[in-house]
Amino acid sequence: MSEAGSMQPAERRLSLLVTVLAFALPVLFVLVPLAIFLGYSFFSVDQGTIVYGLSLGNYVRFFTDPIFLPVFWNTIVLCVSVAIICILLAYPAAYFLTTLKGRWRYALLMLLLVPLLMSYVIKIYAIRSILGLNGFLNKALVAVGILQQPSTLFVFNMNAILLTLTLLLIPFAILPIFLSLERIPQVLLRASDDLGASGLQTFLRITLPLSLPGVASAASFVFVLAIGDFLTPQMVGGISGFTFGRILYSQFGTAYNWPFGAALSVALAVVVIAAILVGERFGRNRGTSI
Amino acid sequence: MSALPRLSTILLAAITTLVAVLLYSPLFVPIVSSFFTISHGDVDWSSPTVSTYVALVQNHDILAALRTTLIVGACTVVLSVVSGTLLALYYHGRRSGRSVLQFIIFLPFLMPPIISGLALLIFFREIHLERSLLTVIIGHTVFVLAIVYRTVLTRLQSMSRTLVEASYDLGATGWQTFWRIILPNLSSAMVGGAILAFALSFDETMITILVTGTQSTLPVRLWAMMRLGFSPDINALVALILMFTVLLCVLAARFLIPRQVATERT
């Protein structure tokens, strides 16, 4: 603690050690690896060995090869869709929670957040078995009469990735939306009611605009988590469900091209940083403090 | 919001129920199949069994992975709580350079795990550190550090400065003040942070897959087994893990919430 005016030598040495550690730890284990990673994106691979010569070749390949940009774009579209579906499901649920009183509100919130703690890998596996040909979803759709026979529409393709990511990430959308809805001062709603607005008008003119920061945060959370995931597409995507995360991961496995993988990661990082900044920009609460 | 028309309330409740069903259905599959046999998507409800739990105890492969996970979790907790607390103490009340370093600490938590994991993978290769449990522990610590740091810093900021000032006024040295005043006040935040860190480490998969050596943690082991399909005893393990994590969650809530309410009251 810096306010200790008269420090003994032992304390001063400790304080110096803490200072060094406080700077060294984050720099050594976070900044240095990221810097080396960025540096790698300018290297290349020749017959299985990494050539430490600087070139823009990896980036040129990313932008000119007909494979990568379309997959990159499709993955972004996929993850935006996941974010939109998550919000469409999470918003009504979060809104319903705020209509509840006291203890029930938080008990139900906990109930909707607890699935986050459950093993990610196991959830992917379970969802795959639900979506599969013999899975519960097909059984239910056949039973209701929507499908004549079980369909392979829901597994080992892009739909499967979309559905699985949505199921996995809904809680990340519920929490920020709930928090922004809860922060809306009740007086505003009562004032609107007093001035003769209908429930719908109050919702559209007061509640919805004031909860948009939460929606923005939720969208950015879900998008970032979805686009970085390489396990889900690998597990439920099959051959046709090829996402950017999978291509990136394969550069460090079967394709064995670390420098190119690093360049792909830089592209991913740019999108992620943009998403975080957008979420941050629109996620700020304005005018809700009274 | 009390003036909500009845119809919309029913609609909202229905959507909330749907969301809950969607969230919980993936959890029920392994739990149900830990007690009942499932063949071709049909559950045989007639004969509940605990044989999967018996089989689990004999599955040395899985138990070894579980042990590895616990070792990694324990080391991660110790490292992240010590360094997270030191960092929080250091940055608390200091303006210069704090926001930049704080941002660096948060980077691995904000970035997709694949980026953090790959950066560490290349880093370990460049410093010639063989992939092993040590690299996994470093990876986990870097990942969870932000959470412990944030938890402890929040407590520090809510701690009344008068406590520290009173301690100095009464003639205590900086060292005494730290041990007798600051640390005891931080302890519950540190325990809460430790539980969160353990829970995150326990389930961390993506970074671990990238930086692990021959010994794999439980999620990585499960991931490897998944391509072939699970044996029923995995379901028993999953059911147990679910109970365990819910317990952890309740514990974390106990350590983190009541104290904050208490400090608000004073």
Automatic annotation (TrEMBL), chain A:
The superkingdom listed in its UniProt entry is Bacteria
Q: How does it sit in the membrane?
A: Multi-pass membrane protein
TM helices/strands, residue ranges: 16-43, 71-94, 106-127, 160-181, 202-227, 258-278
Entry-linked Gene3D superfamilies: MetI-like
Q: Where would you find this protein in the cell?
A: Cell membrane
Keywords, in A-Z order? Cell membrane, Membrane, Transmembrane, Transmembrane helix, Transport
Where is this chain primarily localised? membrane
Name the InterPro entries on file. MetI-like, MetI-like_sf
- Whether Membrane counts among this entry's keywords is yes
Where is the signal peptide, in residue numbers?
A: none
Q: Please tell me whether the keyword Transmembrane is annotated for this protein.
A: yes
Which residue range or ranges hold the ABC transmembrane type-1 domain? 72-279
Q: Which family does it belong to?
A: Belongs to the binding-protein-dependent transport system permease family. CysTW subfamily.
Q: What is this protein called?
A: ABC transporter permease
Annotated organism of origin = Mesorhizobium qingshengii
Q: What is the lineage of its organism?
A: Bacteria, Pseudomonadati, Pseudomonadota, Alphaproteobacteria, Hyphomicrobiales
Automatic annotation (TrEMBL), chain B:
Q: Which residues form the ABC transmembrane type-1 domain?
A: 66-252
Q: Which InterPro entries match?
A: Bact_Polyamine_Transport, MetI-like, MetI-like_sf
Regions that span the bilayer: 65-91, 103-124, 136-156, 177-200, 236-257
This protein's source sits in the domain of life called: Bacteria
Read off the PROSITE patterns from this record.
Answer: ABC_TM1
Sorted alphabetically, which keywords does the UniProt record give? Cell membrane, Membrane, Transmembrane, Transmembrane helix, Transport
The subcellular location is: Cell membrane
**Which membrane topology term applies here?**
Multi-pass membrane protein
Entry similarity comment: Belongs to the binding-protein-dependent transport system permease family. CysTW subfamily.
Its protein name is: ABC transporter permease
Lineage of the species this protein comes from: Bacteria, Pseudomonadati, Pseudomonadota, Alphaproteobacteria, Hyphomicrobiales
